[in-house]
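Example record for the data management plan.
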Amino acid sequence: MTEFFQVNEFEKDLKKLRKKYRTIDKDLEVFCKALQAELPNHLPGTVQISGLGEEISVPLYKVRHFRSRDLKRGSRSGIRIIYAYQSDMNEVTLIEIYYKGDKEKEDLERIKRYFISKPATASKMDF
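Corresponding structural encoding:
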């Protein structure tokens, strides 16, 4: 069974989104269950992030199709999730969540901070 973790900054991102989108927690839970059922493959609308350099050996992915009931646009909600999947440990680490209208691109500095400088310190998620 796949275990899900979130970095501290992910929780801060989620807290900001909760103010705008009341169902974001339930939507995230549905996403995690769908991802868990699909692994080691990935959900449609998910792309691997390239250009991170050789220092980062863990594959990182951006979810472009995230369903949000608040936005009522199906999987084209504009919410993005960045995560790392470590297949050998069967772990998913959620790194960043943001609305595309507020932020254009993932935070590469955050990714490097968690996967180059030190091992990712993350808390386990319970559903």
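Summary line stored alongside the record: The domain at 3-120 is CATH 3.30.2310.20 (YaeB-like fold).
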